[in-house]
Amino acid sequence: MHDTTDGTQTRRFGLPTAVALVMGNIIGGGIFLLPASVAPFGTVSLLAFGVLTVGAITLALVFGRLAERHPHTGGPYVYARAAFGDFAGFLSAWSYWTMTWVSNAALAVAGVGYFHVLTGSKGSMGTDLAVALAMLWLPALANLAGTRWVGAVQLVSTVLKFVPLLFVAVVGLFFFDPANLGHFHEGGGSWAGGLSASAAILLYSYVGVESAAMSAGEVRDPGRNVGRASVLGTIGAAVVYLLGTLSVFGTVPHDKLVGSTAPFSDAVNAMFGGQWGGALIAGAAVISIVGALNGWTLMSAQMPYAAAKDGLFPAAFARRRRGVPTVGVLAASVLATALTVVNYVSGAGGVFEILVLVTTFSATVPYLLAAAAQIYFLLTGQRERVRAGRLTRDMILALGAFAFSFWLVAGAGYKAVYQGVLFLFAGVLVYAWMAARRPRTARAAQTAEDAPAAEVATAA
């Protein structure tokens, strides 16, 4: 990026591109299986979607408020470090970075199945690996070409996947048959149990709400546009999720939907007859996954870029070319490639599943720290950018975002939290190494800043 006279970088993302980035990252390949995944719990899952949507919008609003204070690339990392210091910032950056490149590998593997449905080809290990690697590296090349290309690809891919999904969601309402719906709560137990169980599956449908905040350094007028893009992108994704799931529920008989491996395809076939729905939805799924990979590849580079500028990640991650942290893009792509190769070549599915499980916990750590940072800013009187009369509302939003993030952690399950914490703590060694490598002057300055607080604590 070019520098302006005030030392800031030229902002290349307008509001439409920022909204597309949020929507594109939220809507990956999972939407195409979600209706079948939650069908066993009954229509109570629609209520779960509504609750999660409210929580996600609350989190989006908090990211918008935080971006007004700190309109810089890095989002949750920047907020955690500003509130709680280097160590908290590093944990946020490490956790988020881990989540991005592991989930990129998972997205690429998921896209292989849709690719074969679209082309009518039969998979082999070599073919599957080649397709998965192409899905990883084509978005990486778009990122390396510069942020203008990232924005262009994101806009096009978001439109191409949003239009057919919304078409199915809206047109499906005209074919809606209440007889196809299952009971409000399927199975034993209370409906509240079904609500929690379906929510546990849907919890991570909204990961990506932070995308505009992560790239705030590239968004024009971030104080206004980050919050708007976060909310509009989340609402746009929610419309697709809710209407799409409702339409599939109403067009595909419940007993068939429970066992479906392509619920949107089954819905199209039920509406119009024939078997062309499978290819249509497979094409939308491939576009959706490639678009998500385009956005997540940028996210995988933005977090370590911000941390590297502060000496908490290797300095190479702070290098930019055409507005993109190239080392971060390459590092994430290489790591995702290695994980994908391991999955196909060695057949170590268990290892792959464990690492993917780590991402479910890793995604929530930056959310918790960001919400806590906003609470800290409000409680300590750092309200210089909070308009009069908005303090109470901002505190309610921050507490709601923290509660939502905490629910995400609880919904991840014991195994995910256990594995995630181990991987998170492994980063402590990296932090120790980077802290030791920082210049003595920087460490001395940090010690001087900490001394007054230590003296106050001792006196107390």
Oligomer: single chain
Alpha-beta classification:
mainly alpha
- SSE pattern: HHHHHHHHHHHHHHHHHHH
Rounded to the nearest angstrom, the distance between the terminal CA atoms is 49 Å
How would you briefly describe this protein structure?
With 460 residues, this protein is mainly alpha-helical. The N terminus and C terminus are likely disordered.
Descriptive report:
The chain has about 450 residues and is an all-alpha fold. About 75% of the residues lie in helices and about 0% in strands. The termini are far apart. The radius of gyration is 22 Å and the shape is globular.
Topology, please?
Blueprint: H1 15-26, H2 34-38, H3 44-69, H4 76-84, H5 86-119, H6 125-144, H7 147-171, H8 191-202, H9 211-214, H10 222-251, H11 254-258, H12 263-272, H13 277-309, H14 326-346, H15 349-362, H16 364-379, H17 391-411, H18 414-437, H19 440-459
Helix pairs in contact: 1-7, 1-10, 1-13, 3-8, 3-10, 3-16, 3-17, 4-5, 4-16, 5-6, 5-13, 5-14, 5-15, 5-16, 5-18, 6-7, 6-13, 6-14, 7-10, 7-13, 10-12, 12-13, 13-14, 15-18, 16-17
Tags for this entry?
460 residues; disordered C terminus; mainly alpha; single chain; disordered N terminus
